[in-house]
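May I ask you to review the protein record following this short note?
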Amino acid sequence: MSTSKLKDVIAAGRDGIEIKDRKALSGLMDGLVHEAVFAEEDRRKGLLLLIKEIAKAYGAVPASIQGLYEEMGRNYPGFTVPAMNIRGLTYDSARAVFRKALEKKVGAFIFEIARSEIGYTKQRPLEYSAVVLAAAVREGFQGPVFIQGDHFQLVRKNFLADPAAETGYIKGLIKEAIEAEFYNIDIDSSTLVDLEKPTLKEQQRPNFEKTAELTTLVRELQPKGIEVSVGGEIGEIGKKNSNPDELKAYLDGFRETFRGGRGLSKLSVQTGTSHGGVVLPDGSLAKVKIDFETLRRLSDIARKEYGLSGAVQHGASTLPEEAFHMFPETGTSEVHLATGFQNIIYDSSHLPADFREEVYKFIKSEYAKEKKEDQTEEQFIYSTRKKGFGPLKKNWWDLPEGTKGPIMKELEEKFGLLFDKLKVVNTAEIVRKTVKPTVVKKEIDLSLIG
């Protein structure tokens, strides 16, 4: 689209953006966000920043979930917040989330992207937040929008080779994310736990000390009026299950080490899942068994003894639908969901077979070296197809509406089911009471508005 049309629906001056025609603005978002994502670099950044300022003027405001999580720490309200990693078709998928949220009056939901996903989906934080906020405007959503950096993880082998460089990378990512208005950040230094040490506290020391260091940076970078929600992690996902003693060793150590103001709002634990699920040789998924009793105990201790919102469950989107009601029943404060949405997109009967084959051909050629000797082709494709979204982003984005529309209907049904099972229906009111978004105005290039 030409941005010249914007001057008819918005006005911009020293006080920021004023919206003159909300309905017409919504109609321009499809073209504006497409142009922003695929423009040349200089223009691209300017357009992404402009979209975010438009969204804030519209009433869709990037926010920290801290206030809600503090309330959950005092008085658990009986729901689990879904945190959704959107890897591909991000604008369309986010629109589907907002449509279902508006229909069911959901306020407690998070859009997130992990360190690894930022790389292979080719969505830097500024793009991700702008695309999500554009989707909010397109669907008429007003209120706090929670955008989260998921698994800002220190990679163990990188850290052991050069601790300063790996820490510096994560610090740079935190700075980039906060600048892009990710006001929720999960720090994962659980990879540094040293099981050779004799006591749990010494095993967890590299984890809680690095989390404290990085949380201090978050507190230094957060804008005035915003308390970024920070999460920690004790159990590397896919490894052995966490236990209460580990939780206490980590949180006690963090309390003693961290001196930078507000501490953690939640804690990710391991209770039996793995990211993406376990793939059988025929490409189907093995059944996942979550230790819900452990999840209950860990959430209980985190809340009652440390004032956190509770425990966080990762890698849950491939669980059977009948398991999701257990998260609110066990007091889980947040659950992370990613691969299940990706599977709906790839496995939809509405995705043209020749397009799917084109993506798989690209994956087999581009990532051939990643195939393990004992993997069947089905296992390799399943575990690697997440990398088909980034390099082929424009191909996905430009699929015809007749293809994308029915796929989004399937996703919308999944979002609705999750909102029901996690009991976040009608949470818009508690979010309104506990979260007061602060609008952080960013400088924009006025020449972009016609």
